[in-house]
Amino acid sequence: MRELFISEHLYQCICEMRQRRGLKTILDRGDESPLFVIQRGNLYNSKTLSNQVTDMIKKTNLEFLQFRENPVTAHTFRHAFAIMAVEQGNADLYHLVQTLGHENIQTTKIYLEKHMKRKNNVVLPLRIC
């Protein structure tokens, strides 16, 4: 089990959703019920969430999607979070590893190294007269 830090607004949204599903809205460390459930009360597994995110992103028809090699998935947002946290100075590597729940610092470094390679691959504009 992993401890999550969430905003007050997100907490309220989760409580409202849990209330609609007939679950407790007071969350504490001893509560072992799933945080998210589908309408029938079944566990909302990561594959279900990932499929829904991927489907929603595809439906947006955003232009940049046609240039991506891989689809945008829920896991893509983990990479985006890691990159933004470091670039904005909100996290050092150690705390980022802890936040992402990685057991090995090398996993977190992989997230960041891919981004740094793209960021450092700058092409200077070529002026042709």
Topology readout:
Elements: H1 8-20, H2 46-60, H3 74-87, H4 93-100, H5 105-120
List keywords for this structure.
129 residues; mainly alpha; 2 domains; 51% helix; globular; DNA_brk_join_enz; Tyr recombinase domain-containing protein
**Helical proportion, percent range:** 40-55%
Rg result:
19 Å
How many helical stretches?
Answer: 5
The number of domains: 2
Q: Main sheet?
A: none
Q: Would you tell me the overall average pLDDT?
A: 82
Order of helices and strands: HHHHH
Share of residues in strands: under 5%
Which residue ranges are poorly predicted, with pLDDT under 50 across at least 5 consecutive positions?
Answer: none
Query: How far apart are the first and last residues' alpha carbons, in Å?
Result: 62 Å
Number of DSSP strand runs: 0
Structural class: mainly alpha
